[in-house]
User: Which sequence fits this backbone?
């Protein structure tokens, strides 16, 4: 049975978040392909993981039998998150853009699961090649050729970290202009937002089926 690790990080609840809606479309299509599978859902907005601490960080570079009680406790929590990634057949991440970057809750999760010698910078990583789909929603547009192209730090950052450092197989789905229905100054862009959202929903379902087919092959 296939396991999907589903990470949400939007502070907006269901019904108000585009990244959640698009991720849900992926998950629904995934579950159609894997009715007996497992979905592990982490809502980082509702249940944030601890930011990395000195104990959690230094424990990753020390032998377990040398850990202090503080290191042992912090590292155990970190290992739980790492094992969820290692046991996943596919990963789905909702990553809305906040102030040109990712939510701090998602950064905290990443800081915990990136462990040099286990998940990162090693040929023996159990997660290498795992397909990960990132729903990178944003209130405006940062596409090539737009005035704010140079402010696109979400795809650039996650592509480098997930793809290059962790060796995951990364695909992005990018619904844009999500603030158009809420900002009067962007009212002329509502049709473009609606088209972008519709395409993202379709792309999410198609990507889920593609990943499911790849795993079944």
Assistant:
């Amino acid at each position: 049975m296939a396991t999907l690790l589903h990470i949400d990080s939007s502070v907006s609840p269901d019904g108000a978040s585009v990244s959640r809606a698009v991720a849900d479309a992926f998950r629904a299509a995934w579950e159609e392909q894997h009715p007996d599978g497992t979905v592990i859902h982490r809502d980082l907005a509702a249940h944030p993981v601890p930011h990395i601490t000195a104990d959690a960080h230094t424990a990753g570079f020390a032998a377990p039998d040398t850990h202090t009680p503080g290191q042992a406790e912090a590292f155990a929590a970190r290992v739980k998150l790492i094992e969820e990634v290692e046991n996943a057949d596919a990963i789905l991440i909702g990553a809305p853009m906040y102030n040109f970057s990712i939510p701090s809750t998602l950064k905290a999760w990443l800081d915990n699961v990136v462990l040099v010698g286990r998940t990162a910078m090693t040929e023996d990583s159990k997660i290498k090649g795992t397909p990960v789909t990132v729903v990178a929603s944003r209130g405006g547009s940062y596409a090539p050729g737009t005035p704010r192209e140079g402010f696109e730090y979400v795809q650039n950052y996650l592509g480098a970290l997930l793809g290059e450092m962790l060796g995951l197989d990364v695909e992005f789905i990018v619904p844009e202009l999500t603030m158009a229905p809420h900002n009067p100054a962007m009212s002329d862009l509502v049709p473009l937002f609606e088209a972008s959202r519709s395409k993202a929903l379709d792309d999410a379902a198609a990507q889920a089926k593609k990943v499911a087919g790849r795993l079944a092959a």
